[in-house]
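Protocol step 4 of 6: structure prediction from sequence.
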Amino acid sequence: MKAEELLRRYKAGDRNFARVDLTQVILKKTNLSQINFSQAILTEADFTGANLEEAIFYQATLNLSNLSQARLTKADLRATSLHSTLLYKASLGKAQLQKANLSQAILQRTFLREANLSQAILVSANLSQANLIDADLTGADLTGANLDNAFLLEANLFQASLEGVDLSQTILTGATMPDGSIFEG
């Protein structure tokens, strides 16, 4: 499927694009709120600045895609593959990212307030300056992740893996740590 056909069908009211192959599609600054991309192949897609609020990406493949400055508030990204995806300054407030693979993803300055990242894979992800206030990272794998100047106030890191992570520049006040203790910083 090509971008033109998707946009035409979306404009006509169609929201179901489950299982489509849109590899390398360019949909910059488009409004695709509430679209269903469940199990879609969106490898190397460009959604820079797109409105994807409440979109469904359940089990979709977005590896190497660009979602910089995209609005993904309340989006469903459960079990989605976002390996090496660029999410710079994206808005993912209240997004569902349980079991998502965000290995080596760039989430610098990304808004993830109240996002559910439980059991997500964030190995070697760049989360510097990310807003993770009240985020659920229960059981997440953050091995080798960059959390410099990230905000994790009141975040839940219970049973999260933080091996090789430097938390010295991370704001953790009120966060539940991997061992269940509350950080008092």
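Step 5 (inspection) to follow. The chain has two domains: 1-101, 102-185.
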